[in-house]
Structure formats: structure tokens, C-alpha cells
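Hi everyone, sorry if this is the wrong subforum. Our group has a chain we'd like a structural model of before ordering constructs, and none of us has done structure prediction before. Sequence below.
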Amino acid sequence: MRFFTIAGLVSMLALAAAGATGQAGARAGKIYKNGELAFSNGGSALDAIKSDGSGRRALVHCTADCVIGGYAWSPRGTQLAFLRGSATVRSPKMWLYVVNARGSGVRRLALCGNCVSSSRVSWSSDGSRIAFVRTDGLHVVRVRTRAQRRVSTGFVLDPAWSPTGPLIAFGRGHALYTVDPRNGRVEQVVTITGVVSHPSWSPDGTKIVFDGIDQIYVVGADGSGLTLLRSGSQGSGPGAPAWSPSGDRILFFNTPGTPGAFTAEIWTMKPDGSDARRLYASPCCVGLWSPPIWSPDGKWISFSADSAGGIFVMAPEGKQRHRLSEVPTEVAWQPLP
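Answer:
Right subforum, don't worry. Here is the predicted structure as C-alpha cells:
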């Protein structure tokens, strides 16, 4: 998979963006309602919009030489976490913030620095803590007290908090790891030949689907049953998998084609890799994209790509597709109880 995602592009400027996929849609046994979608407005502001394209409003903004990224809704949709600050190459200085759902009460929680190794922030299932990445490893901060702790060292990718327990999954090199932030215990779940990224937990917390370069794997949270679900040629994907809130489908991105002429595709498949369905294919040529995400109730999908023409929402069968914004950028979907 060619990682020229919106998040990846901004990371080159030292911003850790969260694809998306820091989505906090469903916890075990609970399907949430759909709230608003948060998205970046030109990189220097965050807006919220309803899924039908109405009610667009501003949440937070930046001053000159400032960027925003890495946003994720809390599990009950009451707050939005985001990264904001200077992303200059010489002196990047990003901070982790939270803001209330209506745009009030902006609070700065922790220094992120240049955030170059992270592509998302992730909330604990109870909404009390946020995991984020600094250059010295994976950190966890308490939202109420701002107490911060480093729970793992090294170059960490894409932390994802289990929806049912204390563990955080993340990629580091060729391995998928979990860490228990209560005691800092790090466990290697599995290793592959490619670089591990984009872990996504099943809603019941028993399995993890993740990226290897141009490959998608699934494995038990205990390291058992590693299975290659889908693979492609160099640069073509698949990648950026996301488990549906009901647990019956996996959403992923694909970029088939040849160098300089890749297109953007949105697919779903069953958790065993069968019944793969292409929902959307863009014209040539994709350059910037953001991982597709499920709505909290699992009845809609949002995706973003420059070759598609911006941010879209569609039904899981690929129908009823409509555009929310002409600017391609990462998207986070608010869950509501």
C-alpha cells in the first residue's frame, strides 16, 4: 500500500494525524448511534457536519503556522481529542488537546512534540485516558488530571485501545504488540515479514486485524491463528482495515494500478477474508487519501481521496453515495449513546 494518506503527508511535516480511524464506534455488546463527522478544514481548523451534509459548524481553529490533525471522538461522543501546534520541519511542537462536542472547553493535555511516528490517538473504552505517540514511545494521559505516563519505548505506529479491556495494540517494526498501561507489561503478539500498522480490534476484543505492507492479516489477541486475509502487488494495497461495529465485516482501502497511475478503491470482506466486495472505485490518479471508517451504527461508511473528489458517505453496499466536502482529509465519526 502506498502510504500517501492525508495523515502520512502531514506526518512528513511532523504532524501525527490519525486516520481515522481513531474512531470509537462500538464497545462489546453495544452499537452506538451516529453523530456528526469531524474533519479538517484546510489543515488549520476542525469542522463538524451531519452525515447528510447539513449543519456544518466550526469546532476549533489554528492561528498562522499552525496545523490540526490526529482527531478522535471519545467513546460516548462527548469530547474530541486532537493534535494542534507548529509543524515546521526545523522546530515542530505539537500538543494533545480535547474539546467538548459543541466546541467549548478546549483543554491542552500533553506535549506531543513532533509526533512523527503516530497516525492516530486512541481513547480508552471508559473515556478516561488517551494513548498517543511521541518520538520516545507510546504515552497515556488521563483526561481529567493530565497525569501522563510512557508505557512503551521505540518507534510505535497506530495505537488502538481494546474496546473490552485495558490492552493497547500497536505496530513496531515487523511485530504487532499489546501493552497493559496499568503495569507497562508489553507482549509481542505476532511477527510478519512486512511493517505492522493500522491495528483494529474486533468488537468483542478477541481478535486484531492489521496491515502488513500490501497485506491484511488477522490474529487472535493472544497471538493464535495468524491468517493472511488478502494481499496485493507492490503499491496496490490492500490496507487500512477497520472492523465493523457488529463484527461481521472488515472495511479496507485498495490502490490498484501501476506507479503514477493508481486508483482508489473501497472494499469490505468477511472476517475470514471471504466474500470480498468492491464498493467504490475512483478515476486515476490517487495521491492523498485517508483510511475509510464505519459509522458508529455500522450502517454507513465514510472515505476520503483526492481522486474521488473529497470526503464521501455511502451505504455498506456502495449505494446512496454523497459528498460532504471537496477537500480530501481524515474523518472521525461521533458515536452517540
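For your construct planning: Confidence is low (pLDDT under 50) at residues 2-28. Helices lie at 6-12.
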